[in-house]
């Protein structure tokens, strides 16, 4: 992460961690796309969104916030049919696979709210990288009030009928938090893996979203 990406705008897309957990210590993350046409999400915003996600998660990991798992709320109210051809879906697949397989968090549930009519098309793009367990934990909720079955209403943003600050207010506060660890994020972005140390027998469990394991000169195809 470089200097420019430590201060992305927060209007077209938002990612945040709520300050309170559920009674059983489950943390809450929210991904939201702004439905305002003047702040419409574009392809470039998706990459900035994922940089923001890694920055927020870095802060959480640095401060060792204990939880027994996490819920992720995905508010898709800002997506339109034109996004199907505009957004970098392969990039989004790869980042989602990274989040599911590499991050030290137990994902207890994914709640989709304000799903567009074309959500089945989006789901089919991500289905190959979801385990059977994760598919069962993904729920499409017809109304944001259905969140109350899992998350206390009082800790949710006021956008969803809760007592917490609005999504925009929380997003601005998280932007300040990200900027407070700016130097760490810039330094961390310079680190790379030493691939010479990777075990030869290692493989990924995300289907072929990151390519086929091995090399073609060794790949046997029936």
Based on secondary structure, the structural category is alpha/beta
Number of helices: 7
Distance between the termini: 43 Å
Strand content: 5-15%
Roughly how much helix do the residues carry, as a percent range?
25-40%
The gyration radius over C-alpha positions equals 18 Å
What order do the helices and strands follow?
EEHEHHEHHEHH
Specify the biggest β-sheet: 5 strands, mixed
Q: Please report the total strand number as a whole number.
A: 5
Mean pLDDT: 81
Please give the order of strands in the largest beta sheet: 1-2-3-4-5
Kindly describe this structure.
The chain is of the alpha/beta class. It has helices at 43-62, 83-86, 89-102, 119-126, 132-137, 167-180, 182-188; strands spanning 13-17, 26-33, 69-75, 107-113, 138-140. A five-stranded mixed β-sheet has the order 1-2-3-4-5, with helices on both faces. Strand 1 (13-17) and strand 2 (26-33) form a beta hairpin. Residues 1-9 and 215-222 have low confidence and may be disordered.
What would the keywords be for this entry?
single chain; 222 residues; alpha/beta; five-stranded mixed sheet; 7 helices; 33% helix; disordered N terminus
Write a brief caption for the model.
With 222 residues, this protein is α/β, with parallel strands linked by helices.
């Amino acid at each position: 992460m470089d200097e420019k990406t430590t201060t992305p705008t927060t209007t077209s897309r938002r990612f945040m961690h709520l300050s309170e957990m559920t009674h059983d210590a489950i943390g809450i993350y929210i991904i939201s796309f702004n439905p305002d046409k003047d702040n419409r999400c574009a392809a470039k915003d998706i990459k900035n969104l994922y940089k923001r996600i890694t920055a927020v998660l870095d802060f959480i990991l640095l401060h060792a916030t204990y939880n027994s798992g996490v819920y992720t709320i995905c508010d898709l109210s800002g997506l339109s049919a034109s996004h199907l051809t505009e957004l970098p879906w392969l990039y989004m697949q790869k980042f989602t696979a990274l989040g599911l397989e590499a991050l030290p968090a137990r994902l207890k549930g994914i709640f989709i709210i304000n799903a567009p009519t074309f959500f089945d098309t989006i789901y089919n793009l991500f289905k190959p990288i979801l385990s059977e367990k994760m598919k069962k934990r993904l729920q499409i909720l017809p109304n944001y009030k259905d969140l109350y079955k899992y998350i206390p209403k009082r800790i949710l943003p006021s956008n969803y009928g809760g007592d917490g600050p609005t999504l925009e207010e929380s997003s601005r506060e998280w932007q300040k938090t990200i900027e407070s660890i700016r130097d760490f994020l810039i330094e961390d972005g310079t680190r790379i893996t030493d691939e010479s140390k990777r075990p030869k027998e290692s493989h990924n469990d995300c289907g072929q979203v990151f390519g086929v394991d091995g090399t073609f000169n060794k790949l046997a195809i029936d």
